[in-house]
Design goal:
The complex is a heterodimer of chains A (79) and B (222).
Chain A lengths: L4 H12 L5 H13 L1 H18 L10 H15 L1
Helix pairs in contact in A: 1-3
Chain B lengths: L3 H25 L5 H6 L3 H12 L2 H17 L10 H19 L31 H5 L2 H12 L3 H12 L4 H8 L3 H23 L7 H5 L5
Helix pairs in contact in B: 3-4, 3-5, 3-8, 4-5, 5-9, 7-10, 8-10, 9-10
Classes of the chains: A mainly alpha (79), B mainly alpha (222).
Chain lengths: 79, 222
């Protein structure tokens, strides 16, 4: 089946997560072969997820781990 | 057929889970110091989860500590039906929600806030010259800053889903369990969260404006 752009957009998230049916996957891939717009949207969304998973993007406060384990140690000692 | 990579990954996950079950048994048998080791891989997940709810560093840190201490106190109740990470994420979500209520921020970012935002936000934004974006742009500090602020600006329920799925890397079932919603809702909201972020970040991802106006005229959204 020939998909329109907006149908591809509706499936982008599931497509990235590999949770579309093989038929839908095939339709999307056929569409992506000739649609630069949807390819760009897909790639930019993927880039956002790559950037999100990069530990430098969302950092823990400096000293967080040390303070956490100190608090935990007090709890363990008291239990 | 599963690829060898998938098979290896699931074997590693099984080994990690068995190791964790062993640690938990030892802690419950009295070797409580081992709890430090049990919790270490999840510190980041606990912090990011509560941060997505309370939205400021000081409260998130306090809250993350409370969640970890609570997990220690209630470890005996962990039966191993769920993964330890899911159980811990559930504790973190509850701790975050309680803190939010105490902070009386309910008005501004209520757990009951309307979940339907601007429908237009759920469709992605077009990008040009995208092939030039990745690698070099991804290294840019300003892009990371823009992403942080875009995530912080998402409505609460989308921010939490996105954090659990794409930052904490919990799967759909685990995210659903931690938030107490069904899996389909996780997928729908995650899709919307990702599309909202794509829209909000499009200006940073777009490197140059398209020269060919005719190209824009045949865009499907115009």
């Amino acid at each position: 089946m020939e998909l329109k752009c907006k149908h591809v957009w509706a499936h982008i998230s599931d497509y990235i997560d590999d949770s579309v049916t093989p038929e839908v996957r095939e339709d999307i891939e056929r569409h992506l072969e000739h649609c630069e717009i949807c390819s760009a949207i897909l790639d930019s969304t993927r880039n956002i997820l790559v950037l999100t998973a990069d530990d430098r993007t969302f950092e823990l406060p400096v000293g967080f781990s040390k303070r956490l384990h100190e608090r935990l140690q007090r709890e363990l000692a008291a239990s | 057929m599963k690829s060898s990579g998938t098979v290896q990954a699931s074997a590693e996950a099984r080994a990690a889970s068995e190791r964790e079950a062993g640690l938990i048994a030892q802690i419950l048998a009295g070797q409580k110091e081992l709890f430090h080791e049990l919790i270490r891989p999840y510190e980041r997940m606990v912090y990011m989860t509560v941060f997505s709810i309370v939205r400021n560093e000081t409260d998130a840190e306090d809250c993350a500590q409370d969640a970890v201490v609570n997990a220690y106190r209630h470890l005996g109740k962990f039966r191993g039906e769920a993964k330890f990470s899911t159980w811990l994420a559930t504790i973190a979500v509850n701790e975050g929600r309680q803190r939010l209520r105490r902070l009386k921020r309910a008005k501004e970012d209520s757990l009951d806030e309307p979940i339907e935002g601007d429908q237009q936000e759920f469709t992605p934004a077009p990008l040009m010259d995208w092939r030039e974006i990745p690698l070099e742009a991804l290294e840019r500090k300003e892009l990371r800053e823009a992403l942080r602020s875009a995530v912080a600006g998402l409505p609460g329920i989308y921010r939490q889903i996105f954090t659990l799925r794409d930052l904490d890397e919990l799967n759909v079932a685990e995210t659903a369990a931690a938030l107490g919603i069904n899996e389909n809702m996780v997928k729908v909201r995650l899709h919307r969260a990702r599309m909202m972020l794509q829209r909000r970040l499009a200006p940073y991802l777009k490197t140059t404006a398209p020269a060919r106006k005719s190209f824009w005229r045949r865009m499907p959204w115009s």
